[in-house]
Structures are given as structure tokens and as C-alpha cells.
């Protein structure tokens, strides 16, 4: 193995010093070698991609659909995304310059932050939140401002948003909202979004709406800020969660052309384009597979209710998730607030993998996140093991 040239060992983008490696992946890797462990750590659906979607990808490969696609995505896919968003959000996006196909929703977010933010800009992020947001904002030279929502049932209120905007000052350029939320599963009602939209419209801020879990809501219909504020919202989503297509890396972002130009420009530098087979599969999923998520939703809701019942009896406090496939649970007081210590002990003693809550930002200390995108059998055994562990105390 080659040794790094000594004079190059310190060659590094200094912005990397402001971010840490993915704590979720790091902790998952740390506990993966424990014999017999059942991991409820990652947001990885246990379902297979629907057969008709797989067939479309296979057909693309067999027909030698293997050349560079347009940077923004194939026209038929951008049209399918536009049609889906018109039906689900009531907003008409021009496929030519208002829809961008990306390598997963992660690349959508990277293209947005790199394309639109400048050093000194601030982005408000309600927490708990997916830790990726903080890293991407910092790598763009901007500053993430965490809004701890733990005292409000993990919901950002319009009044709190107004106060935070005023406190942060003129450098605030955007608000990043993820709903349904990872890690809490909380989402907004139509009325709550209307109240937030009034504040955002008043301050003329960019809205980055991460709606990757929008097809997985359980107790209410999904409603979008893009419906209320299409002129200032970038809607981010994809098919990883709705169609169990995590490995296909299929995402997209839609928004007004005046904003999208810079996002598309950065995207073309980062990845050139998304692979052809993934795009063919996505066309099929959006045009002929809109009912596919309903099968997953039914199973996820059953698992959610089962886990909440079991963990509540164990002494955990849980704000019922309204979407996505995570439970964010407060550790009983007798265990203290060191969620890393608790999660590691549970992994080693009970062979159950959970994610320490504090990786999700302000207001997350003393919590653990678990994913119920796992098989029913694994969830049942994991709850039995966790109950036995908790009974020891």
C-alpha cells in the first residue's frame, strides 16, 4: 500500500474540520460486529423494490440505454415528476427548467446548499434533525442555526419561527424543514403549515422542504409548503423511502426557475447526470406505481403501534410519529442523559442496535432513535430483548 507523500498529509479542505463524519453510520459500524445483534439503526426499508419497477430498470439495461442522459434528467422522467407533483401538491412545475433529477435526495440538498449559500449566510434548522443538514450547510461556508423544538412536542410553531428569525438577524437566508421528520416522525397539519407560511412569506426567506417521507404518513394526509409558497420553496424528495429504492439513488428537487438555475448548475458539476436504469425505473414508479407505498404504509403503521405500546410499558416517553418510520424515545430518567452510553450498553448487553439521539442536534440529548423499517420478526425479538434489559433496572 502506498504511503502518503509527507508534504501532502495536511492537504485538506479546512471546512471539513467544522463537520464530523456521519455519527449515524459511525455508531452503526461500531456495533455491527456484535454477535447476534438486531440493528434498528438505519432508515433502510426491508421491503423489495416493486416488481414492475425492477422490470423497467432491467429493460433499460437490456435495450442498451447506457449513454449520457441530459444533466437535469430525462425529459420523460422530469415530466413524470411534474405530473406527480401537480396531482399531489397542486403546483405545476415546468419540466424543462423547474425540475431537476438528482442522485438521491442527499445530492438535491448538496446542490441546493452549494448552489445558493454563501459564507456568512444562516439557515434555520428545527431540531432534532437529520445530521446531514448541518454538515452540508457548513461545507457551503454557511451557518446552521438550530431551533430546539423539544419543549413543543418536536413541532416548530409560527411564533417560535418568527422569534428565531428576528434573533438571527439579516444573515438568515433560508429555513430547512423536514416533514415528516427524521428522527421524530412528526409532521405538520395544514393549519400549522399555513401559519408557518405566513411568517416565511413576510420575511421572504428561501424554504428548503425535505419531503422524502411524504408518501409515508399514517394519521393524516401530507400537505406541502410548496403548495402554499411555490414562489420561494424548493421541494426535495425521491423514491428511496416510498418505493424502497434506497440503492437506486433516485431523488429530485423542484422549484421556481429563477432559483433552480444555480442548483442545476452545481448538480451538473457534481455528478453530470443520474444513471439511465434508475431513471427508467423512476418513470415506471411515478407513472404506474403510485399505489405501491400504500402496502408499505400499512406494515409500517402496524410496526409503529406495536413498538410504541411495548416501549411505553418499558418506561420510555414517545411523541407518536405521524410519518416516516422512526421512533424517537426519551430514555427513562434513571439511565441519565448519556444516550451514547445507553445505546452502546443496549447493543452490548441486549444485542439491539439503536442510534443515540444527540446526533440529531439541540434538544436530542437523552433520546434514542430506532427504525421500524425492519422485519416484523426482528422487531418482535428486539422488543423482547430490550424489555429484558430494562427489567434489570
TrEMBL record:
Which keywords appear in this protein's UniProt record, sorted alphabetically? Answer: Aminotransferase, Pyridoxal phosphate, Transferase
* EC number(s) given by UniProt: 2.6.1.-
Which cofactors does this gene product need?
pyridoxal 5'-phosphate
Task: Name the family the entry cites.
Answer: Belongs to the class-I pyridoxal-phosphate-dependent aminotransferase family.
What domain of life does the native source organism fall in? Bacteria
Which EC class heads this enzyme's classification? transferase
Q: What is this protein called?
A: Aminotransferase
Q: Which GO terms describe its molecular function?
A: pyridoxal phosphate binding; transaminase activity
> Gene3D superfamilies from the xrefs?
Aspartate Aminotransferase, domain 1 (3.90.1150.10), Type I PLP-dependent aspartate aminotransferase-like (Major domain) (3.40.640.10)
Under CDD domains, the record lists: AAT_like
Q: Which Pfam families match?
A: Aminotran_1_2
User: Which intervals hold domain Aminotransferase class I/classII large?
Assistant: 37-386
Q: Which organism is it from?
A: Limosilactobacillus gastricus DSM 16045
Q: Which InterPro entries match?
A: Aminotransferase_I/II_large, AspAT/PAT-like, NHTrfase_class1_PyrdxlP-BS, PyrdxlP-dep_Trfase, PyrdxlP-dep_Trfase_major, PyrdxlP-dep_Trfase_small
What GO terms in the biological process aspect are recorded for it?
Answer: amino acid metabolic process
